[in-house]
Amino acid sequence: MKVKNTRSGPSASFVHCAAEYDTSAEFLAITLPLIEQARRQGAPVAVIAAAPTVRLLREITGSDRELILLPPPAPELRRSGQSIATMRAREFRELTDRADSAIVIAHYDPEQSLFDPAAWAEAEAALNIAVTDLPLTIACLYRKQLKAELAAPIQWNHLQLLGRGGTVRPNPAYRPPAQVLASYPVRAPVAFGPPDSELRFNPWQLTDLRVLLQEVVTQSGLDQERAEDFVSAVNEVASNAVEHGSSVGLLQTWLRPQFLACEVHDSGSLGQPIPGLRPPRSNDPRGRGLWIARQLCDLLHVWADRQGTHVRVQVARR
Asked: Roughly how many angstroms between the first and final C-alpha of the chain, as a whole number?
């Protein structure tokens, strides 16, 4: 996969706002002005929502082609907010590459059964790291009277509040991502059980690590491009572990019918809650490894505990 870096710096036109509503009429009173604004500006409009909400918007706008439907995250991503943010960041960069700006309408129901509130709080905070350089408006709409445990992440993760008629005002309750993630620490993913293979390595054994990875991807049946991407992603993570973490790392692999996964563990600590979300500047030779690795796989989840830093890299076997 060719990895494209489009980062230039913080965008003065980045808006990440929230709105609450009770009825469909109130929902439309908030969202339709945004769609009209996009029409005037020639900006694309993307929608993240369940089918009933998409149908409602398409009926009102009278257009099937005007709204770009962004799919829900795959099941394996739903507990990894940072992986959801990485997926959305790729989509949002494609949107803004097409035009001078873009609008995203995201309709969330955090109380539905498939929704993981902690992962959602992580994803929203991660977006505030990953896409602040884009000329983008993300409008997140929620039903009123949510559970108390969900109110704080909504208040903290949105820089602005959105009202009727598309009016936007600063959100006094907003908190920077690091503060949000201090209250909602990144969790370890669900364990896979004993690994199929493992290797302890140091900086001089990265060649051995790549040999093992090549054996694993050959067994997995991944096509050549995805196999090369996976090996490159894990190699970036492993190199980062022994350069910035500790001098010795541990690689573990799992090959399952649906996916191939690796974990890299080291005894170092994280300098930031979720590294590798923001694309590096073209003139910055450091800080590229984890961001590149995130672009080359389906899931990359970083977490830390008393034992050190851990990274899971995963791809679907399709």
From this structure: 16
Confidence (pTM):
0.92
Q: What is the DSSP letter of 273?
A: S
Positive/negative CA dihedral, 315, 310, 235, 285: positive
How far CA 271 is from CA of 45, 187, 265, 313, in Å, comes to 36, 17, 16, 20
* Strand partners for 255: 260
Give residue-wise pLDDT tens across range 67-121.
Answer: 999 998 988 898 999 999 999 999 999 999 988 899 999 998 655 545 677 888 9
Domain at 273, CATH number: 3.30.565.10
Q: CATH number, domain at 128?
A: 3.40.50
Maximal CA-CA distance, the chain: 63
Q: 113-142 burial by CB neighbour count: b if 16+ within 10 A, else e?
A: eeebeebbbbbbbbbbbbbbbbbbbbbbbb
Residues 6+ apart with CB under 8 A from 187: 79, 118, 303
Burial 243-280 (b: 16+ CB within 10 A, else e): ebbbeebbbbbbbeeebbbbbbbbebebeebbbbbbbb
